[in-house]
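Dear support,

I submitted the protein below through the web form. The confirmation email said the job was done, but the results page showed an empty box. After a refresh the structure appeared. I'm attaching both so you can tell me whether what I see now is the final result or a partial one.
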Amino acid sequence: MRSGSGFGVLVVAALVAACASPAPSVRVARSAAPPSAVWIADVAVLDVATGERVSARDVLVADGRITAITRAGASAPPAGALVLSGQGATLVPGLVDMHGHVYADCHPVWAGALPDPEANLRAYLYAGVTTVFDPGDNSADAFERRARVARGELVGPHIYTAGPIHTAPEGHPIALIRAFAPWWIGWYLAPRVAVAVDSPEAANEAIDRVAEQKPDAVKIVIDEIPLESPRMRPEVARAIADRARMHGLRTVAHIGTTRDALIAAEAGVALWVHGVYKERIPDPDIAVLAGYRIPVVATIEVFDSYARLRSGPREATALERETVPAELLDSFTPPEGFSVGTLTSWQG
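What the results page shows now:
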């Protein structure tokens, strides 16, 4: 297992959820003088040959790789190694978050604040996430941030990013910003949260532009958020996927309905994001969708949390209590009189 240059940071991390606050209560930093090796003492590991969890093992990591796994206490750590106690814990590979928006504010919409991407990156590592795929970062420094992490200038997981989101004119997330952002900032944010594409010709131009930045994928939105907002037309989706393929890039699609999934599949996307979450997939279409053999990144907890908005105060997880200030966690209970407006019909 390749652990990478950030291993010394990661072994001290708890496996916790990555919602960063502007001032997290935990700090994650790179060692000024990385140790020659890391010795994790008395930790449980997975025996991949038997599929069993085996306790009481010492694990040696050197040059970014696991080089030895022995019975606890059977040998001594090498000179100069950083020794960490793994007692009561289980050593696992770095987690991969396949849908994480690095440039995102984790406050609820009624208590919004400016994004703090560096805090988000630290929180990912604290959570044990060593790789993140960001299917939508419209900030001006998305690609430079990726490069800074790769160069070791920023502490964070390996970033794979699609850069800007491509959507229909006034489609998601533009429509969502217009619905919920205060007027005094919404007019500025809405046209900047995504690239609006209205024709195959415009699609070619947009993909040629983003390809110059060497994204890891191209992101399109076919879903309607809010309901009945514009949806990307099939011919535009296909043009984007075709042009991306010319540049050696795969396209991922945010979908919400069976129709969205079919449009994306016919366009030639490589990944469905969110999946069909607005309806039960009709029985005849299940085999059709399966036949495309397109993987899906489900975001079940996100949508489930939307449904729980009106079910009383939100109970924070132990990890959230470690990483997020109490006042921010308390703010996730909607204020009196708050309305979700056009999203009301999504709540069960």
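Response: this is the final, complete result; the empty box was a page-load delay. The mean pLDDT is 87.
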